[in-house]
Amino acid sequence: MLFVIGGNGTHAGANAIHDECRRRRMQVAVVGVPKTIDNDIMLMDKTFGFDTAVEEAQRAINSAYIEAHSAYHGIGIVKLMGRSSGFIAMHASLASGQIDICLIPEVPFNLHGPHGVLQHLKYLLEAKGSAVICVAEGAGQDFLEKTNAKDASGNAVLGDIGVHIQQQIKKYFKEIEVTTDVKYIDPTYMIRACRANASDRILCTVLGQNAVHGAFAGYSGITVGICNTHYVYFPIPEVIAQPKIVDPNSRMWHRCLTSTGQPDFL
């Protein structure tokens, strides 16, 4: 029995091992357990690590909020994980109630122009005196120089959108001669490395138990997960066909927009 724990890439590897075991007619059960804080595995309500990531992100957002509201024309920027999906940024923004602008990979935006992020920031400073931005790491990559570099896992190395936004904000307000105090927080590894909360610990325990039950029952090439609140077995090819992303027309994203009050930045 082989239990493989991870996200889409890990499950793709598990599927390849399962196919090779079948080709060789080996009596090996390969079962996956979804563990990714990005919550980007298809068909699943939630993956192990997501709840903890959203909860821990609140600490960074709260720090940015305090820094921004304690300064004259303070702007707090928090960059959260999410290469291709903005679930952490969306849920953290919605949960905190302290975010004025939430930027995710699934929703295009402009920084400059009459409807851009910078113009809205200017409005926020005039109306509220401060602002807090939450941005997913995969958002706004069109604004950054492409390097075609790959990391050890074969993923494209992303440009740092958080630093780019910070620089553009400072440049914009300097040009229009408005004093600002910009604070940038990147809590990536604090979130990745923290202990799982109670909700995730229970989820992990149940997923692990169900994975073992599935292997003992003779299943292979499957992964365990929650679908419509039920614990079920999925064929691995179905869940790795494509990553799960935020639907810009979904109620949850519109709830987030209602919470932030942000316009379309196009």
Automatic annotation (TrEMBL):
- What's the name of the protein? Phosphofructokinase domain-containing protein
- Which residues belong to any copy of the Phosphofructokinase domain? 2-213
Q: Which SUPFAM superfamilies did the record assign?
A: Phosphofructokinase (SSF53784)
Q: Which GO terms describe its molecular function?
A: 6-phosphofructokinase activity; metal ion binding
Supply the alphabetized keyword list: Allosteric enzyme, Kinase, Magnesium, Metal-binding, Transferase
Tell me if Oxidoreductase is a UniProt keyword of this record.
no
Q: Which Gene3D superfamilies match?
A: Phosphofructokinase domain
Q: Please name the Pfam families in this protein's record.
A: PFK
